[in-house]
Amino acid sequence: MRGAEAPFYLAHGDECEIFAAAYGNGLPVLLKGPTGCGKTRFVAHMAAALGRPLYTVACHDDLTAADLIGRYLLKGGETVWVDGPLTRAVREGAICYLDEVVEARKDVAVVLHPLTDDRRILPIDRTGEELEAAPGFMLVASYNPGYQNILKTLKPSTRQRFVAMEFDFPKPEHEIAVVTRESGLDEGRVRSLVRLAGKLRGLKGQDLEEGVSTRLVVYAATLIAGGMGVDRAIRVAMVEPLTDDEDVKRGLLDLATAVFG
Ligand SMILES: Nc1ncnc2c1ncn2[C@@H]1O[C@H](COP(=O)(O)OP(=O)(O)OP(=O)(O)O)[C@@H](O)[C@H]1O
Ligand SMILES: [Mg+2]
Q1: Which residues surround ligand 2, an ion (CB under 5 A)?
Q2: With b meaning 16 or more CB within 10 Å and e meaning fewer, what string describes 34-71?
């Protein structure tokens, strides 16, 4: 394992073992979980630990199969075929990570199906090729079930092609370790920020659509470590990003004052 230079990732459970086992058996993996809980960092860490190149695609509602597979482009008067990130990963035996996969257009699922069952092939209609995935190729997809609406879910025939893992915000002791390491702030103040994060997460569903992410706690801690006052850092990193509602904001700031005393 070339794990030495892998980006820092603190495991919360057996996710690294599960990912490695899926990789070893050529199985695709689906990561579910709220924004900013460590999914992207986990994939970057695992790709480096397994010594595989990583191609990440941020999916959006205009993303088509051609964006993943490739297209003919005009280059100096000639048309040349240019591989998309998925095709490159299939050829090279890399990890292809489709972030927010539910956002992608429907034709993307059609492409993923033969790649994510035991065939492991990528048919490229435009060139007539049918690529067999190189050893080491792995498909990883993630999405946030919280944003789900009726139109944007994965079909059972797609989701049942993946080994799936649920991610959530870390336990306080883990989150303290993550935020301390990422921000360089002293553990005492990080502990208070994490306590506040726990309280803010308790408001999910009542006043807030989503609880505060670990990413935002890292932001607040980083700003404080850089010299910003605690009140201001909390306001800009842990309150304003969560809501536009003035009453809710005031409530969140009061909660912060209560936690920090
Ligand atoms: N277990 C962890 N180990 C190390 N860092 C973590 C961990 N969990 C969260 N982080 C920190 O939180 C930040 C946000 O995580 P990341 O970008 O991976 O979230 P995500 O789940 O991919 O979110 P999104 O769904 O919005 O893309 C990271 O940059 C990192 O600083
Ligand atoms: Mg991400």
Answers
A1: 40
A2: bbbbbbbbbbbbbbbbbebebbebebeeebebebbbbe
Pocket probe for ligand 1: among 214, 217, 218, the residue whose CB has the most ligand atoms within 8 Å is 214
Residue 245 has pLDDT above 70, yes or no: yes
Residue 144: both structure tokens together: 């946030």
Q: Tell if the pTM clears 0.85, that is, is over it.
A: yes
How do residues 148-203 score in pLDDT, each as one tens digit? 555 567 888 888 999 999 999 999 999 999 999 999 999 999 999 999 999 999 88
CATH class of 15-166: alpha beta
pLDDT tens track for 201-234: 988 877 788 889 999 999 999 999 999 999 999 9
Query: CA-based Rg of the chain, rounded to a whole angstrom?
Result: 21
Please name which of 65, 152, 35, 64 lies closest in space to residue 103, comparing C-alpha atoms.
Answer: 152
> Strand, coil or helix: what is 123?
strand
User: For ligand 1, what atom is nearest to the CA of residue 99?
Assistant: 27
Measured CA angle at 139 (ends 85, 36), to 5 deg: 90
Count of Cβ atoms closer than 10 Å to residue 144 Cβ: 20
Please report which ligand is nearest the Cα atom of 35: 1
Name the token pair of 36: 């900013």
Helix residue spans in 25-152 (DSSP H): 39-50, 65-69, 85-92, 106-115
Closest ligand, as measured to the CA of 41: 1
Q: Whose CA is nearest to atom 4 of ligand 1?
A: 9
How far, in Å, CA of 175 to CA of 78, rounded?
Answer: 53
Task: Look at strands 95-99 and 121-124 and give their pairing.
Answer: unpaired
Report pLDDT digits (tens) over 151-163.
567 888 888 999 9
